[in-house]
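Hi V.,

You were right to ask for the full record rather than a summary. Here it is.
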Amino acid sequence: MNYLIAGLGNIGSEYAFTRHNMGFMILDAWAQASNVVFRTERYGDIAEIPFRGRKFILLKPSTYMNLSGNAVRYWLRRLELPAENLLVISDDLNLPFGTVRMRKKGSAGGHNGLQNIEDMIETQDYARIRIGIGNDFQKGGQVDFVLGKISEEEKKIVAEVSERVIAGIKDFALAGPEKAMNSLNAKSRKTDI
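Predicted structure:
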């Protein structure tokens, strides 16, 4: 059984460790922990991680955040996977930094990358994990905030969050979305930063 795990972000070194690249950071941590390397393919960078009879295909779209649906649709079709085998990781302004929320389906919630995926695959029925980045910005400062670099202290939190999210994705594949949601949503942490 194969699963497509899409981490959302923007390509290019100038976007590394920005709040909007939370999905890329999670997938990079997983690839590093698994000693696998991403390879550049059509519409994105791909890595494969086998796990207990399943295979996770990690996708970092090269289409920029707001056009992520092109890459997700292409890889779902190429891998011949249903939307139920898709899990998308994105940032979320409405959650405190380091908070994790998983849903097995739902609306884009104002996230342009998720909205584009929904538009391109023509369904909201796919799992998503949202990683909180907070919303500590002045009115009109949203773009600068989401494209701003995270602090060294926040990088430590992202490392902890990455471990939890990776475990949650494995639960998603082995035990189903309900168990993964119960585990990830119950362990949501509050930060002191």
